[in-house]
Write a structure and sequence with these properties.
This protein has about 625 residues and is an alpha/beta fold. The protein contains 23 helices and 19 strands. Helix 18 packs across helix 19. The chain binds iron/sulfur cluster.
């Protein structure tokens, strides 16, 4: 057990990040359990503590008498310097033991720019960075989360990946590892990895040999042992009502990103926005029953003491029993002063009415996401909203007393022209004017927030060549020049980090050497602008002889084999290809749970189905 010197804690910002002992944390004696798991998120405590997936796994694993789950996050740079100076290895927050002594370390990979932090955390733990260099005594290093749907750029650093939802498969991994340990680690690490490869949804990269075509594109990922499957299909929970939820989450002592109850209404989204990876990889929609949600909400209020509850999902306003649920939650918890919030609003007046109900006192700003500035481009991305929808919703919000509106857009989308960029500015001005029409005076504040589009694997836009940083900057400048009203503020993203995200999103195994070289030259916390070192990354590409444009900027040929082809989320490639063609033609595709099934392949392929309780109640 590591004892932290108070002198060290006094020298770092937010020492509460490292002390543990928070409300609801579970401290087990590691010697009394068969398997210890360090659940890791390669970012700072405040981000890591806000991850719902890890909260769920923490509870599921700790429910087992034979296992202990502990937490570990990336130490901030001040703490890392102290740890390196005093040779303190990376430790878990619960038992304060070195991560190296755990049996498993599971990283949740939410974002490509956290890859350098994975290496930093392994290094701080004293665990060899390359999976090939790890002996039996080292923990099994597992990756999961959305980035695991193309794990190839980080394949060299991980022993295996969990593809898809982790509730069931993590239990199977623990049982397999526990049996192997009990058997005296028979057959060594290779035997364990082969057994894991036999589990559904587990990908062991070392059991595949990747070859490349003469032009540098991926040619084949061939299995090199009988245990490995040619294609790894994601794990999916058929009915969320049947699995454990995080009803006793750890309550932190310091502010974290989502410092409130998170009540997950459903998984998946069938709206079919063509840029959205989550919308594809978490298909189909599976709702929790409203009565189960009420019960979970009660448990969460009782176990945490929070007075704010956020109804989370990819598109919470689409929950089929939302109105009844919100009413019931407000009614049940009004005495205790628990407020309910909806993080994502659909662009319609029904949403505004709901927002009004849930935010009866505080009229903070409302956020809408038209994503593109013109109807033509909104049709290309299949956003499914019109300018009229937006104006009706914003008008209702102004009428109900809101005056601040945030509008989210992307630039660099397929087929985009300068007219689409100018359309963003025009829309912002029309929103300002609308306030005057509704209220008879000026006074609205509009924030235009613009991110750069990054094509992601498993989406209809996975063939698209990403805009270069120079082109994105030109578009940002064009938009800036059109937004000249002091009531409009403009936020944009660093185009160089978008490039890196694009490279790793659709990259292959060759990129491991780039990530390693960049980390060796100081790359870490790349998602934090104050730490991002573009020159270090560009030099790492140069020294590896690799061109970032090849991965990010190149339009892929229709028949190109992708580096992630042996990993499937269940959606057919031909369906995605058709969707790309429909996008280029500006053709809309409807919501498959409210309209007809579009034949994406998920439901029959994975033996799951859309669960929509509102629809079932209405027959
Ligand atoms: S198979 Fe049909 S119903 Fe199921 S997610 Fe795909 S399009 Fe929707």
């Amino acid at each position: 057990m590591i004892t932290l010197d108070p002198a060290i804690l006094s020298r770092v910002a937010k020492p509460g990040r490292y002390t543990g002992n928070e409300w609801n944390s579970i401290i087990k004696d590691p010697s009394q359990v068969g398997i210890t798991v360090a659940l890791a998120l390669p970012d700072v405590y405040e981000v890591g503590m806000s991850n719902l997936g890890l909260k769920i796994l923490y509870q599921i694993i700790n429910n087992r008498p034979d296992a202990a789950a502990e937490r570990v996050y990336a130490p901030w740079v001040d703490m890392e310097a102290e740890m390196r100076r005093y040779h303190i290895p990376l430790f878990t927050l619960e038992s304060k033991r070195p991560v190296q002594h755990c049996d498993i370390i599971g990283f949740s990979l939410q974002y490509e720019l956290s890859y350098s932090n994975v290496l930093n955390m392994l290094d701080l733990s004293g665990i060899p960075l390359l999976a090939a260099d790890r002996e039996d005594k080292f923990p099994l290093v597992i990756g999961g989360g959305p980035c695991a749907f193309n794990p190839e750029p980080v394949a060299a650093f991980f022993d295996c990946f969990v593809i898809g939802e982790g509730e069931e498969v993590m239990e199977e991994v623990i049982e397999t590892a526990a049996d192997w340990k009990k058997a005296g680690k028979a057959g060594g690490r290779t035997a364990l990895l082969k057994q894991l490869a036999g589990l559904k949804g587990i990908y062991v990269p070392s059991l595949y040999s990747v070859s490349y075509a003469a032009d540098g594109t991926a040619a084949k990922a061939a299995v090199n042992c009988p245990e490995a499957k040619p294609v790894i299909a994601k794990r999916v929970i058929r009915d969320l009502n049947q699995v454990e939820f995080a009803t006793r989450p750890v309550v932190p002592y310091l502010d974290i990103v989502h410092d409130r109850i998170m009540l997950e209404l459903f998984r998946g989204c069938t709206r079919g926005c063509r840029f959205c990876q989550a919308g594809v990889i978490y298909r189909p929609v599976r709702e929790r029953r409203p009565e189960i949600l009420l019960q979970l909400a009660q448990e969460l209020v009782d176990s945490t003491g929070y007075n704010e509850m956020s109804l989370t999902s990819l598109s919470s306003a689409d929950y089929s029993c939302l109105h009844q649920l919100v009413q019931a939650l407000i009614e049940r918890f009004k005495e205790q002063g628990v407020s309910v919030s909806l993080p994502s609003l659909r662009i319609d007046s029904f949403s505004v009415q709901l927002a009004q109900e849930v935010q009866q006192v505080r009229k903070s700003g409302l956020t809408f996401a038209p994503e593109a500035g013109t109807q033509r481009l909104r049709d290309v991305i299949n956003k499914g909203v019109t300018e009229e929808n937006l104006m009706t919703a914003v008008g209702a919000a102004f009428g109900a007393g809101w005056s601040a509106v945030k509008l989210y857009f992307m630039i660099g989308l397929p087929t985009e022209t300068d007219e689409d960029i100018e359309g963003i500015a025009a829309l912002a001005y029309r929103v300002l004017d609308l306030y005057k029409t509704v209220k008879g005076r000026r006074g609205a504040k509009v924030t235009v927030s613009v991110s750069s589009f990054v094509p992601k694997p498993h989406t209809p836009f996975q063939w698209f060549g990403q805009n270069s940083p120079a082109e994105l900057e030109r578009k940002q400048q064009l938009l800036k020049s059109r937004l000249r009203d002091r009531n409009i503020s403009f936020n944009w993203h660093d185009t160089r980090t978008s490039l890196l995200e694009g490279v790793f999103a659709r990259g292959d195994r060759s990129l491991s050497q780039v990530i390693l070289a960049a980390w060796q030259h100081g790359a870490k916390f790349d998602g934090w602008s104050e730490h991002f070192k573009s020159d270090v990354w560009l030099e790492a590409f140069r020294s590896a002889g690799l061109d970032p444009y090849f991965y990010a900027g190149r339009e892929r040929k229709p028949d190109e084999i992708f580096p992630w082809e042996h990993i499937t989320c269940g959606v057919d490639k031909t369906y995605l290809q058709e969707e790309y063609q429909r996008a280029l033609a500006g053709a809309a595709t409807g919501d498959c749970r409210r309209d007809d099934c579009r034949g994406c392949g998920v439901c029959p392929g994975l033996g799951v189905e859309v669960l929509d309780w509102g629809e079932q109640a209405n027959g």
